[in-house]
Hints:
Layout: H1 2-11, H2 19-30, H3 32-41, H4 45-63, H5 69-97, H6 101-104, H7 121-144, H8 146-154, H9 159-178, E1 182-183, H10 187-190, E2 197-201, E3 206-217, H11 223-233, E4 243-244, E5 249-253, H12 265-271, E6 277-283, E7 286-297, H13 301-311, E8 314-318, E9 331-333, H14 339-348, E10 353-357, H15 360-365, E11 368-372, E12 385-388, H16 391-411, H17 414-424, H18 426-430, H19 446-455
Parallel strand pairs: 2-8, 2-10, 8-9, 10-11, 11-12
Antiparallel strand pairs: 1-12, 3-7, 4-5, 5-6, 6-7
Region (Disordered): 422-470
Amino acid sequence: MGLLISAVTRLAPWTPLPAEVGALATAVQLHPKLRRLVEQGLRGREQAESVLPVVSALAQGVATRGGGLVLDVAERWSQWREADADRAAWAAAEPRLVRGPDDAAADPIAVPRPGPPHRDVLARYTERAMAVAVACGAAATPYAGPRRGLAVALAGEPKAPDAGREGFATTLGRYLARRGAIAMDRGALRRLGQVDTVVLDEDALRGDRYEPADLVLVNGTELEAVAERLYELFHPTEPDRPHRDADGWVLGPLEDLDLTGRTGRQAAARLRRSSDHVLGLARGRRLQAVAGVVAQTMPGTQALTAAVRRSGARLVLASDHTGSAFGFVDAVVHTGRRLLTSVCDLQADGAVVLLVSGNRAALGASDCGIGVHRDGDRPAWGADVLVGTDLEAVTVIVDGVGVARCVATRTAPCSPRAAAVSVRSPRCRHRPPGRAHGGRPRATPPGASRSASACGGPGTCCPARSPRPS
């Protein structure tokens, strides 16, 4: 519609709106506090994200005769491609995720975030940059006149950082959608640069197979003989069922074994602190050893922990085991029913939490929730992104934390440099305002925003290397 009105204004002898109107509409769209006021007047952030770009495009189309619409069209096109990929991913996954009313039912999640919401780095930069631009415009007004002063102030609109973030987020969103991940809230991909703490829920990273992790010998038996029998009788998918051989050896839960003499209770009590199951290995009715069994982690867990380190975020493990298989972590918090409290405690300490879990209440309370669920289980509807068991997709998202910071660092300098070029332009200095395109105040020149959008696009290269979305 903005392009249509722009074309009409070029063909018809209408008087366009003052050039300042288009720049002011962009300022409302970019400034965090002004945008928040609009969200309060509308029906929330989602409606504001739909209304503000349209209003800005209409204002630019009428006021500047289409001069600032090229970048907006490119951004909306990339967002449309992202939304289209999400719809295709949901259409393919819906029969598997929602097989009946029970799969779609969910209680509301109403857990207020402890403390004030975290302020985005780009939001703080935008507020400071626009405040400086207003001050410069006010200082220039006595010498150049009010309209030239307004032009100086509006030339400092930092549009480049937002364009860079959108370029990165839309590219990442399309890549994830092609892998089958469902983005329930695409805004979470725009907030990745804020994340400083990644919490991995050990329960969600467990696979379906088990393996022996510890062994305590009883009655002076030989290690080689016991280990050989243990691995012969152990079944990785059914560790809690007794298994016997023809020589009278039996492996199973201690309480299911008919034993005489030592029962291994002390060894079992010690192993239960770090094991999922405790098994007894007996020959006849005499106990030979007590084994601790743990669940194997899903494929890709090692790469996921490495991605957290590359991103520069703090790695926190949610586990109730004192001897967890994850040793290279910064902290350990409670999981299960206490995971929600653990996430809120981290947020109260000032952390911005990305949670990888299947606990929907904790996912809903986190700042960015990545829902993991196995086939046949109910999806974690509280998550911002549903990935199933695809830990490679989770690794890409975690890598995106560091990449998003890098994009913000690379695109932020584009705005002040472009603003300086706009203010120092000979056309801006010598042409009367309102008579030619160069005299119309507008936001940061589109060239800077296009460069920033390219910085966040498919070719983004940063220290945190992630698989390149295509």
